[in-house]
Design goal:
alpha+beta, coiled coil
């Protein structure tokens, strides 16, 4: 996954040390069964797969989550409020 990220080296290092991002494989599409069993979290297409093994009966369960659109650091501007504040500033400057 590290190959898909860009950022300052200090941030990338932090993510690798604390979250192991350099150990998470990503595929564009493919066969779920082709992924080695010792890989517990991986991405195929637009889904995150997470495999866990029961401590009691050794059954394998797989959770599949759809990966959504990137929304990090997304800023939503209230254009109406901006226009209102510009009008207030303009009125104050003309007085």
């Amino acid at each position: 996954m590290l190959d898909c990220l860009e950022g300052p080296p200090a941030i990338l290092s932090f993510l690798c040390q604390n979250y192991g991002l350099h150990n998470v494989p990503i595929g564009t599409a493919g066969n779920y069964d082709a992924v080695p069993f010792n890989v517990s979290v991986f991405y195929l297409d637009m889904h995150r797969y997470s495999r866990t093994v029961s401590r009691y009966d050794k059954q394998v369960s797989t959770s599949i989550f759809q990966v959504g659109a990137a929304k990090l650091l997304q800023i939503v501007l209230d254009q109406e409020k901006i226009n209102e504040l510009k009008a207030v500033i303009e009125n104050l400057e003309t007085q």
